Amino acid sequence: MLKYLIKRLILFVIVIFGVVTVTFFLSHVIPSDPVGAILGDNAPQELVVKMEKELGLDLPLGQQYTRYLKGLINWNFGISLRTQKQVSEDLRVYFPATIELSFLALFIAIIFGIAIGIISAVKRNQWQDNVSRVFSLVGISMPAFWLSLLFILILYYHLGLIPAGGRLSPSISPPPHISGLYMLDSLIAGQFRTFWDALYHLLGPALVLGWIQMAYIGRVTRSSMLEVLNEEYIRTARVKGLKEKVVIFKHAFRNASIPILTMIGIAFGYMLEGAVLTETVFGYPGLGRYAVNSFLSLDLNAVIGSVTLIAICYALSNLIVDLLYAVLDPRIKY
Amino acid sequence: MAKENLQNWTVSWRKRHFSEISNFKETVYLIKKSPLTMVGLAIILILIIMAIFASYIAPYDPLTMNLDNRLAPLSRVHLLGTDELGRDILSRIIYGAGVALKIVLIVLAIDLPLGILLGLTAGYFGGWVDEIIMRIADIFMAFPRLILAMAIGTALGPSLRNTVIAIALTMWPVYARLARGETLSIKERTFIEAERALGTSNFKILVFNILPMCISTLIVRATLDMGNIIRIAAGMSFLGLGTQPPTPDWGLMVSTGRNFLVNQWWVPTFPGFAILLAVFGFNLLGDGIRDISDPHLRRGRQ
Amino acid sequence: MAKEALLEIKDLRVNFYTYRGIVKALNGVNLKIYEGEFFGLVGETGCGKSVTASAVLNLVQNPGKIEEGEILFKQKNLLKMSEKEIREKIRGKEITMIMQYPIAALNPVINNGDQIAEALIANKNMNESEARKRTIELLREVNIPEPEKIARQFPHQLSGGMAQRVMIAMMISTEPSLLIADEPTTALDVSIQSQVLNLLKDLISKHRTTVLLITHDLSVVAETCDRVGVMYAGDMVEVGTVDQIINNPQHPYTKGLIKAIPSDRSKELVEIRGSVPDLVNPPSGCRFHPRCDYAKPICKKEKPQLLQIENDHMTSCFLYEESHNKRLKEEYAEEYKGGENGRTDSA
Asked: ipTM surpassing 0.90, yes or no?
């Protein structure tokens, strides 16, 4: 097993390296004019040359790459053209916002998804099953940006149930920065009003993301449970005269949970994707929205920074899922 | 005499192809038994008809602007209203089906052969060829699809063509992986050894023995992915990184209509609903096909 | 005065609703098992023996359905009981079952000892420590070496034979009245087979359990069983003691089975002509008639009933109808004669 762990970690490092390289070269294909963006179109030539030298744009690509890698270790991506701040600073502000959103959405998705999946499997082909299957299917077919718009239209404009945007209402100041997760930090600091306000602002995007991921988790739960319920040992459990609840939860679900956990890990990865669209529509200041704005404004440094961060998170969650899988199944020998 | 011969031939053909016939019959039975799959099939057929016969079905031309009649609500003249440039929304949605289906088809037309080629090569020849192909695949898969597509789309410049390229580049690793996996498990089977003992060339083995067995898995996966392709393409257009105006692309329509969400809700809502319906139909069909080809769920003799 | 049967199955019909049509798996099966005996149910694959076993515990799997019939266990009809009753009173307590693939029949994520203890806790109201102690005792009884170690291990670490012993320990733990063994040795090596069968025999005599052994292997039956029932295509075609069935088979199918056992190396392999019928469209009347060398016109039209040939030896075949009727007539004649002589009741 240790051999597998090491092998997997090495793979992770290779992949991160590859990701970083690809991001670099990809972003250099982007038609961007960083100098022009800073100095304007009519800057005198000497100034342009000076700026190019500062930014290292006159160096051959190889050297720019090494410069980039060096900066990477310090988490230094340079300055964002759009916000005029260090990209790493921007990331430090926006990244926890997305993490908070993802965790809340994942929490909703897991609780409801597993419940729906189990009910579906147990009541196979009866109305509960058919309703939840359709419901899940609609969930995974939903374009996140459209659902977000609908939520805003109905829950904000017509019902006033969710706020306009941002992480906190204008009258409330953020809690002391411990983790960057407003809900957690405000709880720790005992600022309950802040806590509820942060939750209130997270509701819209979290529900959208949560609904979509709930559908994925529900489906996997259902199919995994169905497969397990067909196994011989479930028959044995019934022959033993055990109560049906025990059969389903103690015997079936424990075996079914391994693919479900894998799906949860994958769902977390999807969150990062979904966050891009959801944050943009809801106006939630997270990493997703930052990334989109960077793309749209051809802000090279910000693009590199946000994409790298997102890709690393994604690869990390995949790694954790793989490792969990190896740990949880006593049958797997590596 | 000839009639007898024909009858004999029919009987012997039925006997020889018994397993395929019974498979087909079982497949049809299972499809009919699953109303949801039939619904999915129906939706897809409607989409295809809309795509091919758009010019006959659509009441108006999708590009004709009519600034006097902007943002008109639902009426008998304009069943789904008009958008911010006075264009009929229903017609644009109908033409949009063609845009969406075109993207799906071209992406799959690129990715399936590409994936199969790379996967078969990696799986069959193994060694460093396998390692290299798989590492590259891993790196591509390390990006969330939408992000990578956005990056490529931005790099190449927003357009329909580049959307297709971007999405194709994000999805090929999945098919390569699948093809490789199938190749690996088939490669070790005895009938391949038998072929080699007969002296069949590698190429022939790959094409005539291994390839047919991979195809069904890949097609099932492709069907499941069709909905995703439409959704990612729509997402890209929504963000402005994909199709550009005035193409009647559903995602683009939602994006441009977004500003009118509050008072003219129909402008962004209906195109988005079209996306939902299309993805839903593909998912229904994909689910159905996957259920049907799953040997566990096919109940034979008890 | 006849003994009362522990388990009596009357006219059991089970159908499976599949894509190819309705599979008439059990066509009116009749069976009597008496307390303390080792009963063997033999037949080819697909003849319905496992379905019969599942029906007793009301665990017939989808898409199967019990259509009609009675299953009397200690004179109570199991088919009329609610699911709750069966679960609480019968399964695990009175009737248990061991299955063909023992490793697959054990939960892979729970260790062996806990799985056995679970049966004890649920059915015998033991607490955890009592159950654990008893588990180790049981494992010892089934001849498992190092029971504490095995109890802590997981099913995939066991060999087939060991896993089957764990299953037996589990299913014997609650001292059931009836133990159903559904092809328990079919998936095991021949050398392990006899070990497991002997173990079953020992346990039976110790715990006075009745055993219903299901198998397609006549030699296993010959070794272990007291009485045998032969099934074919969903019908019970012959029932009798082991001696009767093997040495004096009456039904043409049974005769064919006995003849098919390879004995003398010089002789050719004898087979029963034809093949097992399709149960979606089974043959009319007696389901064996297409393959029977003695078939008469009536065999195609009507289904034969189980008739007694000699003591405890019954078969369902029209061949014996005549001799059976003759015997019945003679018996009636005796009684009638007695009546004519003034006696109104039989001695």
From this structure: no
Evaluate whether residue C83 is within a structural domain: yes
Q: Is A254 on the interface with C (CB under 8 A)?
A: yes
The pLDDT score that the predictor gives to residue A332 is: 58
The mean pLDDT of chain C is 85
Q: How far is A127 from chain C (nearest CA, A)?
A: 18
A304 Cβ under 8 Å from any chain B Cβ: no
Task: Say how far apart CA C33 and CA C212 lie, in whole Å.
Answer: 8
Question: Which domains are delineated in chain B?
Answer: 34-60+90-293 (1.10.3720.10)
Determine the pLDDT at residue A1: 66
The residue in chain B having the minimum alpha-carbon distance to the alpha carbon of residue C61 is B302
Task: Answer yes or no: do A232 and C105 touch at CB < 8 A.
Answer: yes
Task: Please check whether residue C55 is in contact with residue C66, taking contact to mean a CB–CB distance below 8 angstroms.
Answer: yes
From residue C70, how far is each of A17, C23, C182 by CA, in Å?
Answer: 71, 20, 21
Number of domains present in the structure of chain C: 2
**Containing structural domain, residue C87:** 1-94+177-276
Same domain, yes or no, for C42 and C64?
yes
Distance CA C250, CA B92 (A): 81
Considering B83-87, B195-199, C167-171, the range whose residues carry the highest mean pLDDT is C167-171
Q: Within 13 A of B126's CA, how many CA atoms are on the CB side? A: 5
Q: B267 CB contacts (<8 Å, ≥6 apart)?
A: B71, B81, B83, B84, B89, B253, B257, B260, B261
Q: Identity (one letter) of the amino acid at B223?
A: T
DSSP β-bridge partners for residue C181? C98, C213
Contact with chain C for residue A125, Cβ under 8 A: no
Q: Which spans in B188-244 are helix H?
A: 190-198, 202-204, 211-239
Q: Which of B45, B71, B92, B50 is nearest to B250 (CA)?
A: B92
Q: Do B144 and A141 touch (CB under 8 A)?
A: no
Mind giving me the DSSP string for C9-36?
A: EEEEEEEEEETTEEEEEEEEEEEEEETT
3-state secondary structure of C322: helix
Decide if C332 is inside a domain. no
User: Rounded to a whole number, what is the distance in Å from the CA of C170 to chain A's nearest CA?
Assistant: 9
Residues C231, C126 share a domain? no
Q: Is residue C316 part of a domain?
A: no
User: What is this structure's pTM?
Assistant: 0.80
Within 10 angstroms of residue C223's Cβ, the number of other Cβ atoms is 15
Question: Is the C-alpha dihedral spanning A288, A137, B52, B27 positive or negative?
Answer: positive
Q: How far apart are CA C238 and CA C236, in angstroms?
A: 6
A292, A224, A259, A278: which is closest to A105 by C-alpha?
A278
How many residues are given for chain C?
Answer: 347
Computed over every residue of chain A, the mean pLDDT equals: 84
Does the pLDDT of residue A85 top 50, yes or no?
yes
CA distance to partner chain B, nearest, from residue C19 (Å): 7
